[in-house]
Amino acid sequence: MSKIRVFLCLALWLAAMDAVMAQERYQVGVCDWMVLKRQKLGAFELAKQLGCDGLEMDMGSLGQRDTFENKLRIPKEAALFKKTADSLGIQVGAVAMSGFYAQDLTKKDTYLSLAEDCFDTMDKMGGVTVAFLPLGGCGNDWTTNKAKRTIIVSRLHEIGEAAKSRGKRVGIDTPLDAKGNLRLLKEIHSDGIGIFYKFQTIIENGWDLCKDMARLGSKNICAIHASNTDKVWLREDSCVNLPAIKQTLDQMGWSGWLFVERSRSTKMVRNVKMNYGNNVRYLKEVFNSYPAPAVTLQSEGRDPGYVKTIIGRAEKATDELSITWTPMGENVRNIIANRYFALNDIYAERDSLKKTDKALAAAQCDARLYRSHFGFDADLSRYLKPQEVERVKDVMTFDVVKVTYDAYCDMIPSLTTEEKAQILLWLKEGRELAIDAESSNKKHETFKKYKGRINNYLSQRGYDIQKEREAWEQRLKTQTKK
Question: Which of 353, 345, 352 minimizes the C-alpha distance to 306?
Answer without folding.
Answer: 345
